[in-house]
Each structure stands twice: as structure tokens, then as C-alpha cells.
Amino acid sequence: MSEINKDKLTLTEKREYFTIAHKLGKELKGKFREDEAKKFKHFARKNLTLSNLAHDDKNISEALLTLNTAHLFAEAVEPDKNIMLAIGLYPFLKEGLTDILSIRREWGEDIAGLLTGLESVDRFSNKNNVVNQDNFRGLLLALADDIRVIIIMIVRNLALMRMINNHPDDNWVRDVAFEANYLYAQLAHRLGLYKIKSELEDLSLKYTNREIYTQIAKKLNATKRERDAYIKAFIDPVKEKLEVAGITFDIKGRTKSISSIWNKMKKQKVDLPGIYDLFAIRVIIDTPLEKEKSDCWLAYSILADMYTANPARMRDWITIPKSNGYESLHATVMGPDSKWVEVQFRTKRMDLVAEKGLAAHWRYKGVKGDSSDQWMNNIRDILETAESGPMQLMKDMKKDVYGKEVFAFTPKGDLFRLPAGATVLDFAFLIHSNVGAHCTGGVVNGQHRKITYKISNGDTVEILTSTTQSPKKDWLNIVVSSKARNKIKQTLNEETIRKADLGKELFNRRAKNRKVEIEESVFMKYLAKNGYKHANDFFADMADGKIDPGKFLSTYLDETRPKNESTRVSAEGFQLQDNSHSEESEEIIKIGDKSINGLSYKYAKCCNPIYGDEVFGFISSDGTVKIHRKDCPNANNIRERYPYRIINATWSGVDGDMLPATLKITGKDDIGIVANITSVISKENGVNLRNISVDSNDGTFQGVLVVAVKDIKKLNGLVKKITTVKGVKQVQRV
């Protein structure tokens, strides 16, 4: 939201704004205390001033989007006070009109936490950059932090999708529709927000394939009267039988969503008339919690007596609810005119959960269901085990969310839920990580099976283990569950690290015996040259005996020692080369009163000396002189262990090079503090900002800057100026 749209709300938009505001007021009646209501009304009036702000630079009114989001959340999910306030206050935070500290002070910790989550999500969510790997991964990780933030973003996305039907920028609309389908619709499904999920998918199809959407919609409209008549003919006799049985219920028919119909047309390769379950009948039973299952099965038995049921299409989500809390009994029966009809039986409580997802569980205490924490753990497992780009990530998400589930038993009768295609190895890791790590196979329904055996519904699985078994890399091609993949990778990494520690100890001992000092930067370049991306892989190979440490060390020294230079290990015998032909005045470093020109010297990275620091020289094993600050954290250790390799060094008086210096900054997390600090640096002559990393926690700001400066005087001056920036408490050189 970086540009300003000068136009005010149109008359139509104003009418819509006040209509929604009136509806929202009714939804929130009784939710706020009198003082809170005044504050909220004050916000609503101020919110009109946001009408001159564009949303995502695409001229979508932020005022209308915010109000639509709040109303939609209250209507479709839950009119929760704190969530309503978070939605309403967020535009002000986004535009810098308020800050987290003020919100925490005025509205409390919970609302501040919600807004922090929304801010974190917005940092990564970029409709024009949805396929950027880092942005997408960051967005999902931010979403998986608070389940309420997820629901807010899902509802906000639906509100946005409803507002962009006639938007002039087709590319932007397609980007929004793409993200809605591949991310928010899937998250809505996982949370059980089926109504929102269906509408998101329908709108996504509408904006990405308007021709197909319009074609199906027209055909549905043309056959609506015929479908309504058929549904009535089917329902009427069922109602009579249920009433006679003394069941209190509502019954209604609905046509399936356009996107669902389109998916069936593609999957079954038929046109619209060829889809047999084009509509569904829903029987919603009003009954106490303890009678829910029995009354649903009673209603089903009445239906099965009237119409022939298709056993292959039977779905019992009452005995074993879905992982998102969905409960319902689905049956498909042959209705009049030999047409298949899907009938769903559920109670009022189950219907509320089906309509409003996991959020509806908040209303019922003592109802068994998977926790939201487990849901977020599943999402994190997917993120941690994703190996490729965002498209694969989204495919994994969709597979995990929409994929069918299989159910298997342990010999003791414990029931476990796994993704479709799960193997014996998946089952072993689901029981326990250690069981999975030592799995050698299983006994499935009394027969021995390999770890690759795919589990079917109702299988009884006993896992076989061995203490000599350990995870293999090819196991990653066997398992399908995110948890199993994550644990296998974790174990393989731990084994590599363990071997690397042994190999490193072996290598260091050999180097010490030969009195060779390994320079890390040279060593890492040499490993990369020899095909090792990580030092741990090299040391693990050495521990496995694939590399002989003595031979490697000899080869390493031969190939990395500077040519035409012998190794010097003592300062006493250290001789400066005669370079009378060189221009001594251009040298920066001197040893005593002699120029160091002609010698190989480097500035130590552990302390990054700059011109003007008190320094000393240290002769490394390859003859290179490393220049350290006298207050270097490694100085004491060097003096104690290698006093014979230390030489005096001073600056020659010539202007220094632009050298890096690291500053640690702490202070109050004020808005714009980073911009103010970087502004100070940019205005300083002879200072360049090379790197910056910042972190904030509980209102405290911490930053690490790497700047390039010519001398200590310039650095000290910069430190003083940064200290004057509002909010900065301390600046230290590290």
C-alpha cells in the first residue's frame, strides 16, 4: 500500500460501506463494553479517512476491504471481539498511524499479538511475487504461527476476491486468484471452512477461466427448475418417514459448487449431464450430544430402506472424524429416474463445525477433536521437508490437504490415520521416531511385509525392528508422510554431524603433529575446489576412511602454499625482503620503521582492524602476516601459544584502505529507526554500508551493521552520530 489514490469513495461505495457497517453493528451487539464500543465507533469513523489509500497499489478501497473482512468474519466464522478489533486496527498499523507499543498499551497483549502476526504475514505476501521461494516459505511460516491469523487472512482473501470482479488489471487479478486457490482455499479446507473454501475455488475459476465458469453457470441456471423439482420429489417421502420415526431435523438440497463440478468433468471426462452426483441432500438432526451417532445411523437406515444404497460410495466420518474435525455420514442412493443422489447426515453441532471449521470447536467443551496445535505441526512438517521451489511446496500442501486418508490398527487395537499411499515405514514413524529409525519391516494382517508395503484401510500392522537398523537415504523415496520424511532427514543429518566430529578431530590431531596451522578461508576454498559444498561432508568421509588425513594434508600444503615463499614459523628469524625499488611511502603497514611492502599480509577477520587501531602482526604457517587489533578477542590466546611468531606492526601514516568494521546497535523498537540509522550512514563521506541485519523482540531493537571506513577517527565520528538517533541506546564496535 505505497501509492495514494486521490479519489474519494464513490456514492455506491459509500452506500455499501454504511450498509455493511450497519450489519456489522448488529453482529457485534453485546460483544463490547460501553467504553470499548465508543473506541470502536471512533475507529469506524476514522476508517473512512483510509478511503484515499489504495490496496496493493491496485485502487481497491482499504476502508471497504477492512469492513468487508470484519463483517465476513463475524458472519462466516465467529464475531470474536479481539479479532474484530485486530482487523479494524490493522490498516492504521500498516500505514504507520499507530504502532504495536501503543496498541499493546491501549488494547492489550492479545490484540497486539494478532496484529504482529498480520504484519509478519504482510511482509511476505506479495501478489506480484507469489512464486518467489523465500517469500512463499516466509508467508507460510508466518501463517503457521497463530491459527487465528490464518483464519483472518483466509477471510480477508475472500473479501478481496469478492471485490475484484470488474478490476481492469487482468494480470493482477489472476495473481490474486492463483494465490487464493493454491494457498487460502487449501488452508480453509484444512480448517474445515468448507463454505469459504468452495467460494474461493469458484471465484478463482471465474477469474482464471471465465469461459468455463460462465458455461457451467449458464447450464446450471438453465436446469435449475428441473433440479429443484427432482430434489423436492426426493425429499418429500424421506421427510415423512423421518417425522414418523420421531426425529427432529431440517432437510435441504444444494447444487455442488462450480469448481467442484468442473473438477469432476475433467476427472470423469464427461460433460455436465454425465455427472451423477451433481447435487446433494443434507439432513441436519437436532439431538443431544450423547445421541448424535445413534440418531444419524437411524436416519440412514430409514433412507436405505427407501432407496438402494451404493456401498462403494459410503463415507463414515462420524465414527472416525476427518483430521480437520469434520463429522458427517455420507451415503449415495439410487433415487427416482435411476439417478444417483448423495445424502449427508449430520447433527446441528456437526453442521456448525462443517460450516465454520475448527473455530466452531471453541463453542463446545468436551468434544473430542484434533487440536489446532497438531494442525500447525503438520503444516510445519510440510515446510521443513520441502526440497524444491514454491510450486512443489504448493503441490505438497495440496496433496497433504486434499489427499485421501487411510486408517490402520496396531495389534492392540489402537487406530492411526495416515495419508493415502502410506507405507509400513510411514506407520513405524507415526508410532514413534525410534521405532521408525529401527524398522526392518512389518507383519500386516498376519503376513510379513517389507517396509515398502502400502497400507490399506483396516489393516492391522505390527512393526518389526532391529537395533542394527538405521535410516538410509533411499528411505526418503519410500515414505509419503511429512513426519516420516522430516525424522529421516533429521537422523541422517545427525549421523553426518557425528561422523564429521570424529573426522575433524582426526584431521586436527594430524595437523598438530606436523605443526601445520590451517587457515579456514583457504581450507574452505580448497574443499569447494574438490567438490565439497560443506566441510561436514568432507570430515564425515574422512571418518569413514574414504580420505587419508596424512595424504590429504600433504597434497593440501603443496597446492595451497604460496609459490617462491618458504614457511616461516618464528618472528626471530623473520626477514623483510629488500624492496628498494618499490614506493615505500604507499605502504599502509610497517614493522618497526620498515615497510612491509612485498610481503603477503592480511587483516584478521576475527577483529577487522582499521587504520588507526593499535595492531600487531602474527606470522601464519604459510608466511602470511596477519594483522590483528591489540584488543582482538584472540590476542591473549595467540600471545600465550605463539609468542615467537608475533611481530610489532604500526600504520605508516598513509591514508588507509576502506576496511570493514562491525557495529552492534541496541535501542527501542521505534517506527523508522532502521531508516534513520541508514540515513545517517548514507550522508557520511568516506563511509559505506556493506551489510545490515536487524531483529526486534518485546519492543527492543537489535541491529548489526558492517560499514567500510578509512580510519578509526571516521568510525568514532559515525558512532557518535548514530548514538544521537532517536531510540538508539547503545552503539558498540564488535
Strand content: 15-25%
Helix content: 40-55%
Question: Overall 3D geometry?
Answer: extended
How many alpha or pi helices?
26
User: Which runs of at least 5 residues are low in confidence (pLDDT < 50)?
Assistant: 1-8, 51-59, 126-135, 361-373, 382-403, 564-586
**Straight-line N-to-C gap:** 38 Å
Return Rg in Å.
34 Å
Q: Please, what is the average pLDDT?
A: 76
Biggest sheet statistics: 6 strands, mixed
How many E strands?
24
Structural class: alpha+beta
Write up what this structure looks like.
It contains 26 helices and 24 strands. The strands form seven sheets. Strands 3, 4, 5, 6, 7 and 8 form a six-stranded mixed sheet that branches. The longest helix has 32 residues, at 482-513. Strand 11 (439-444) and strand 12 (447-449) form a beta hairpin. With 734 residues, the protein is of the alpha+beta class. Helix 6 (109-124) packs antiparallel against helix 7.
